[in-house]
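Objective 1b. Sequence-to-structure analysis of Histidine phosphatase family protein.
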Amino acid sequence: MPVTTIHFVRHGKVYNPDHLLYERLPDFHLSDVGRRMARATASYLASNPQTNTIAAVYSSPLDRTRETAGAILDALNGVREKRGEAPLELTTDERVIEAGNEFRGKRIGHGEGALWKNGNWKLVLNLYKPSWGESYQHIAQRMDEFAREKVAQHPGKQIVVVSHESPIWSYRHYLETGHPEHWMFLRHTALASVTSVTYDNETGRVMSITYVDPAADVK
């Protein structure tokens, strides 16, 4: 039975000394720790015989995801070169981008991000939808559309997709429960972690979902 596995990788830690909600804003890059996280996850994927045959690498177009994907590509292409295989290149896709958030560019609870200013309180009335931005339903739909397309394009293969916490967890929650709505405080998607979803190529059915945190000990 042919199957395709998509390894959804969350980006590494971001350099953000002002503690802003960076959402989809440009020029938020990996910190030194974030780069080490990315390399740790890249090493995990490239050194594991079960994953170093990955056939394609995709990411969100944002800086932090492309930088994380770059570390993964460097590690995988080193293995591919030894096997005499052509190097992989990064493809970006808007469908796996960070969730839209009306607090972008603000520090939540401080200054213009204070809940008592500018009607901000209205944005946190529903933690389940959520009311501060893009709905979990829409996030899961675009992630599923992307995933199903790539499963069809890469039958019997493994691919990597570097994305963000909310899209990865919303999609996983949708696959596991039938609905994407969740409490954001209960997400299980650590920085540079890998959530792997395996699909039956003939039926599209999800065969398994696994999770590892290769960068857990990175300081």
